[in-house]
Design brief:
By secondary structure, the chain is α+β, with helices and mostly antiparallel strands. The protein is 45% helix and 21% strand. The protein is rod-shaped and about 120 Å long.
Length: 333
């Protein structure tokens, strides 16, 4: 403990009241110098002080003390939390709140206290200081609340704007989607094959899958040339990648010829139909587990080049039907 408690901190981290409090000697700014002695017997405390006389006290109940000091009856009680502590005395009941400076009594401000740098103040001076402090605290709290509300409002507006834009985009996509049934898609694909005189049942599985991948990842984006990196094929030196790229180039050129070289004049319905008949022909040569794996792989390849186009969304909606794969949403049994 430092001299006069200088440098000592209380439970709230503030400088303790500057005073000397030894076993028998006490010295403070407000109380002066006094000698003090205390003893206890049979639950009764007996205290003698050269400035305040003799006091006899005992605890009546939890947080409640009764005493006689120089023949005068004293009743003290403290109940509740620091935010709203109830104070009991023989003159009545008051309510006080603890602050960073001390305590403010809401009913009898003259009983407030404040402490600065170890200097204890009581009475109306302390009440004035506490009221100024509470007013400044209220202003600071209001500003923080206003700032937080502003941030929340801006965030809410941003979210609302994003939601609105997403709804507008979804509505736009819904307007331009083909919304074709399975039979219509089949007929569109069969018409292209019939016009070109193509029989997909005679084509090998490898070429059918290459055509399926090309139609989804290239034609689905409105392109007519396969770029390996867009489909996630970064390692183009491996034998498998080289063979796949060759297949895609060869098969892709044939499919592009079926649909017409002019990309602008290429009908989305025809592209979707070709994808469907290619997938159906390939599925007839494959086992169900392989079809399901292929569907996931095609979806990944579609996303490798970026967000799906509207036509690719249509294609991925139709692929499970063409491949004979039944999708089950999470949570369904």
């Amino acid at each position: 403990m430092g001299f006069l408690k200088v440098g000592d901190k209380d439970a709230d981290g503030r400088q303790k009241r500057i005073e000397h409090s030894g076993r028998y000697l006490r010295a403070s700014r407000t109380g002066g110098v006094s000698l003090r002695a205390q003893t206890r017997a049979a639950g009764i405390n007996l205290t003698g002080n050269t400035n305040h006389g003799v006091r006899v006290s005992t605890r009546l109940a939890k947080n409640t003390q009764v005493a006689f000091q120089n023949g005068r009856f004293v009743l003290r009680g403290r109940y509740g939390s620091d935010a709203a502590k109830i104070n009991l005395s023989k003159t009545g009941v008051t309510v006080s709140s603890k602050t960073a400076l001390g305590s403010f009594n809401w009913i009898k401000p003259g009983r407030s206290s404040a402490k600065f740098a170890g200097v204890q103040l009581r009475g109306h001076k302390a009440a004035t200081i506490q009221m100024v402090y509470l007013a400044l605290t209220a202003v600071a709290g209001g500003l923080r609340l206003l700032a937080r509300g502003t941030v929340m409002m801006v965030d809410g507006l941003a979210r609302l704007t994003g939601w609105g834009l997403a709804r507008i985009e979804q509505a736009r996509q819904d307007r331009v989607r083909l919304n074709l049934g399975t039979d219509e898609i089949k007929r569109a694909g069969a018409a292209v094959l019939a016009e070109q005189g193509i029989d997909l049942s005679a084509e090998p599985r490898r070429d059918l899958f290459a055509g399926l991948l090309f139609t989804l990842t290239v034609l689905g984006r409105g392109d007519d040339r396969f770029v390996p990196r867009r489909a996630g094929l970064d390692d183009t030196d491996s034998a498998v990648a080289v063979a796949l790229i060759d297949d895609l180039d060869t098969v892709g050129a044939q499919i592009t010829m079926w649909l017409g070289a002019d990309r602008e004049a290429r009908a989305p319905t025809a592209v979707l139909g070709v994808l469907f008949v290619l997938a159906a022909a390939w599925a007839e040569k494959m086992a169900p587990p392989q079809r399901a794996e292929a569907l996931l792989a095609l979806d990944d390849a579609c996303l490798a080049a970026g967000p799906r186009t509207i036509l690719q969304e249509e294609m991925l909606d139709a692929l499970p039907r063409a491949l004979g794969v039944e999708l089950q949403l999470e949570g369904e049994s």
